[in-house]
Amino acid sequence: MKMNNIIEISDLTVSFKGEGYLLTAVDNLSLSVIHGETLAIIGESGSGKSVLGLAILRLLPDTAAISGSIIFQTQDILTLSEGMMEKIRGGKIAWIPQNPKLGFNPSMKIWKQVSEPIVLHTDSSWSEAKKQAIRLLRQYSIVPPEKWAEEYPVAYSGGMLQRAMLAMGTSTIPSVLIADEPTKGIDAINKKDVIEMFNTQKERGITQIIITHDLDFASEVADRIAVMYCGQIVELTSVERFFTTPLHPYSVGLVNSLPQRGLSPIPGTSPAMHEKQAGCRFKSRCSLCSRVCSEEIPLFPVGYDNVRCIQYHNRNWAW
């Protein structure tokens, strides 16, 4: 494992059995996450982004078939006992679910839910943890925190729940924070708050993996972009180069679909996960498709980046 990497994923495949078919949500994926970076994993719904996040935390259902390795701080997460994973999950790696309403127990006060990871993963008492929870609520602009700490989730707005979820997720000062669609269902004002919160975590040195289809949000918080399509990473690049010089035809389509680029839609639809195609998964939607695209295509290095497109085979570009 390279010294500057905090997570190294190698040849990860996650499949689910359907009725008469095998659904592959993550397909032989390899990815390294650099210590202290904010990595945005982007792509359409159904591309495998959330399954990848759940795999890192070992939160997939028992019906999932998993192969490969996920190395976190020298340990392979996929081989650890559940007892060891409980020490990592919520302590060293925090998870912010897609819907904060589902992430809270409706019958438990907010202070207790924010305090729970502190009690579980540190030597703090409940009294000490409550004081820390109140400090965290204030830090995330839930004020007055003493009042809101005593409320139940039903009293919170969507934006407040998102901030409370971040308070809970960062209560143990995790090494890695994984957030699944953190801007989903929130308005523009709350979105600005969420951007500020994630950038604050970045300044504190917390490694962040953000799963999103919100490209504007990714542009504000990410250092690097990993583009997923049909269970594979098709491009890995810096956030600056993704928005200025995207390489993969799918990445080009995503950027061109932005309002400021003319809202040009990508033609066609993604194939279903159980309809695995040979070769490039994007070929049926790509205007540059050729016969060679029916062959399996690896990620090619292009300068500092990687792209899964035959156009870039044997191109040694330097940025």
From TrEMBL:
Q: Name one GO molecular function term.
A: ABC-type nickel transporter activity
Topology relative to the lipid bilayer, per the entry, is: Peripheral membrane protein
Q: Which SMART domains match?
A: AAA (SM00382)
Subunit relationships: The complex is composed of two ATP-binding proteins (NikD and NikE), two transmembrane proteins (NikB and NikC) and a solute-binding protein (NikA).
Q: Which GO terms describe its cellular component?
A: plasma membrane
Instruction: Name it.
Output: Nickel import system ATP-binding protein NikD
InterPro entries named among the record's database cross-references: AAA+_ATPase (IPR003593), ABC_Ni/Peptide_Import (IPR050388), ABC_transporter-like_ATP-bd (IPR003439), ABC_transporter-like_CS (IPR017871), Oligopep_ABC_C (IPR013563), P-loop_NTPase (IPR027417)
Domain (ABC transporter): residue spans on this chain: 7-255
Q: What NCBIfam families does the annotation carry?
A: oligo_HPY
One of its Pfam families is: oligo_HPY
Which organism is this protein's natural source? Methanospirillum hungatei JF-1 (strain ATCC 27890 / DSM 864 / NBRC 100397 / JF-1)
Query: Where is this chain's protein located in or outside the cell?
Result: Cell membrane
Q: What EC numbers are recorded for this enzyme?
A: 7.2.2.11
What processes does the entry annotate via GO biological process terms? peptide transport
